[in-house]
Design goal:
The chain is α/β, with parallel strands linked by helices and about 425 residues long. The protein is about 35% helix and about 20% strand. It has 12 helices and 14 strands. The protein has helices at about 5-15, 25-40, 60-70, 75-85, 120-125, 140-160, 180-185, 245-255, 295-315, 335-345, 365-375, 405-420; strands spanning about 40-45, 90-95, 100-105, 165-170, 195-200, 210, 215, 220-225, 265-275, 285-295, 320-330, 355, 360-365, 380-385. Strands 1-2-4-3-5-14-6-12 form an 8-stranded mixed sheet. The chain has a 4-stranded antiparallel sheet with strand order 9-10-8-11. The protein has a two-stranded parallel sheet with strand order 7-13. Helix 6 (about 140-160) packs across helix 12, helix 7 (about 180-185) runs parallel beside helix 11 (about 365-375) and helix 8 packs antiparallel against helix 9 (about 295-315). The longest helix is centred in the last third of the chain and has 21 residues, at about 295-315.
Length: about 425
């Protein structure tokens, strides 16, 4: 195994050991930034890459705990000051020669999963199991970080062979599709000519690449909160304003939204919490829900219907209410030029034996927000899937993947940069 492959595995295991949830990745961001800085990149952080008005699903208590964890583990205050409360970073490399601008995106957050204690699990055998109880890199983002750093290392050694500019985006809060909107709204990608992002494993095994996944679903994650008025449930029920009852009516009406005739739609109310005691008219109720649509317009139809129902129930039951967008993603169609390029590059990798140009993704990914932003400003974008054997499904306690594919990922990205920015 060559030195780069060993380094990629080391990085992956380092970040696997200290997983952090979205918008709390201070330890992760600082370490990424330190590596990039030492490689000679200009590193942008905080509000340089984040538009706070478009931050989704960021909880203050989670952020504060993340900051405390980072400080407790010796992260430099200078990095935390530059972050100014917002995680993620962008590495900039300007070759000094005119050319195109290419951006690559790598997500960095973990999921709320407790890693298995099974000793057959590689992170247990080799002592890089998560040290943060209840959190785990069970989706391969630790591998994405390693691929991003490996690509950066290659760039630091080969920048004289390239023209133009490169932006490496290490994105926070992908889980729940919460982080991309704020990065897109910062404008950091508005001058980008080519954008690429990918995912390890997922629906593909080692030796394969899915170059053109289709059917990315637009989605919006919404929290809905009702507040009413308490009262004695026996003596004065008429005095109270029943938030639980209003929320229950909202759930049935939301699931009854007429489906759109021009494309697929989805809705799910996943959480309903309400009430304070069995003999008190419920004062508070909250719902967590999501809608999806085959495209941005159809998804917006679902969002509009949700908002009308939320307001209508509030009026009917004399409740106060508020809604909050907690996450979002859009649909995206890969550009044919980049699909063909990724296929050609993958076919030249000896460890890749098959490329698939057609796969129904039928899910959501907030990299689409970044890709669409680039496309809307005249650039081209692609999202592809890098196959990797796995020990269990994503977001499961036993999840692990074939680390040999980290080098495959770096090879594909570096060849993509070489082709697009050849001097």
């Amino acid at each position: 195994m060559n030195d780069l492959a060993q380094q990629l595995i080391q990085w992956r295991r380092e970040f696997h050991r200290f997983p952090e949830i979205g918008w709390a990745e201070f330890f992760t961001t600082a370490n990424i930034a330190e590596y990039l800085h030492n490689m000679g990149f200009e590193v942008l952080l905080g509000k340089q890459i984040i538009n706070p008005q478009f931050v989704r699903g960021r909880q203050k208590a989670v952020v504060e705990q993340g900051l405390q964890n980072a400080l407790a583990h010796g992260i430099k205050q200078t990095w935390l000051d530059k972050m100014d409360g917002y995680t993620g970073c962008v590495a900039l490399l300007d070759t000094g020669r005119p050319g195109k601008t290419v951006a690559l995106r790598f997500d960095i957050d973990c999921v709320n999963v407790t890693e298995t204690h099974n000793q057959a699990h590689l992170p247990n055998r080799l002592n890089f199991r998560s040290v943060n109880d209840g959190f785990m890199h069970a989706c391969g983002h630790d591998g994405h970080i390693a691929i991003g750093l490996g690509t950066a290392l290659w760039l630091s050694r080969h920048k004289d062979q390239l023209n133009g500019k490169i932006k490496l985006v290490f994105q926070p809060a992908e889980e729940g599709v919460r982080g991309a909107a704020a990065i897109a709204a910062s404008g950091i990608l508005d001058d980008v000519d080519y954008f690429a992002a990918s995912h390890l494993s997922f629906c593909a095994d080692s030796g394969t690449v899915i170059s053109n996944p289709k059917n990315f679903l637009s989605t919006t994650k919404i929290d809905l909160r009702y507040s009413g008025k308490p009262a004695h449930a026996g003596a004065q029920p008429h005095v109270g304003k029943n938030a639980l009852l209003g929320a229950a009516h909202a759930v049935t009406q939301l699931h009854g939204i007429a489906r759109h005739g021009e494309g697929m739609t989805r809705i799910n109310v996943g959480v309903l919490n309400a009430g304070e005691g069995r003999n008190v008219i419920p004062t508070n109720a909250s719902l967590q829900l999501e809608v999806r649509g085959e495209n941005k317009a159809i998804n917006q139809y679902m969002v509009d219907q949700v908002m009308r129902i939320a307001k209508g129930v509030a009026v009917s039951f004399e409740l106060d209410y508020e809604t909050e967008i907690m996450g979002e993603a859009v649909d995206m169609v890969n550009d044919a030029e980049l699909v063909a390029l990724v296929e050609d590059i993958a076919a030249r990798q000896p460890q890749i034996h098959a490329t698939h140009a057609d796969y129904a993704f039928n899910a959501s990914e907030d990299a689409t927000i970044l890709g669409r932003r680039v496309q809307e400003h005249g650039g081209k974008a692609i999202y592809f899937i890098l196959g990797a054997d796995r020990t269990a499904g994503h977001h499961q306690a036993e999840f692990d993947f074939d680390e040999a594919q980290l080098l495959t990922g770096v090879n594909i990205y570096t060849q993509l940069l070489s082709r697009l920015l050849a001097a």
